[in-house]
Design brief:
alpha+beta, Butyryl-CoA Dehydrogenase, subunit A, domain 3, two-stranded antiparallel sheet, 5 strands, 60% helix, 15% strand, elongated
């Protein structure tokens, strides 16, 4: 893998990972229509992907500028693995449910077996983008030591 391809993959993967939590991650079909939520609307935990993606992109820029060495490349790989795992965790174990409020009543949660929360492809794309950045970093590190 050439140096430029590795750097572009790290930076792009980081930016995509940071941006996707702002798109729709979850959807619920109701009699009134489709309810959707972005990743960060549904669960504040996904703000961590924004931070990790930003760190991955910045580290990729630093690698491209010749700053840092193998340790920075390995840090990109580690942050990418963490981001990919976190995105998959939030895609496979949906942290949201439907909350219904009757007029003048108190909110009540609908049982998960009565309503299906559909995970949108953006959740899986965030994991894939982080994985691409991590693989590019690892391949770059392998080239450096061989």
């Amino acid at each position: 893998m050439t140096f430029r391809v590795a750097v572009v993959s790290m930076v792009t993967g980081g930016l995509v990972t940071a941006g996707l939590p702002f798109l729709v991650w979850y959807a619920i079909e109701t009699p009134e229509g489709l309810l959707t939520a972005t990743g960060v609307e549904a669960t504040p935990e996904l703000w961590s992907l924004v931070g990790l993606g930003g760190l991955i992109a910045l580290a990729g820029v630093a690698v491209g500028a010749g700053r840092g060495g193998g340790a920075l490349v390995l840090a990109v790989a580690g942050a990418s693995a963490l981001a990919a795992g976190w995105a998959l965790e939030n895609a496979l174990h949906v942290p949201v449910g439907l909350l219904v409020t009757e007029p003048g009543g108190t909110p009540g949660r609908v049982a998960q077996d009565l309503v299906t929360v559909d995970v949108q492809p953006t959740a899986y794309l965030a994991a894939a983008a982080a994985a691409v950045a991590g693989m590019a970093a690892l391949l770059r590190r392998l080239e450096e030591i061989s």
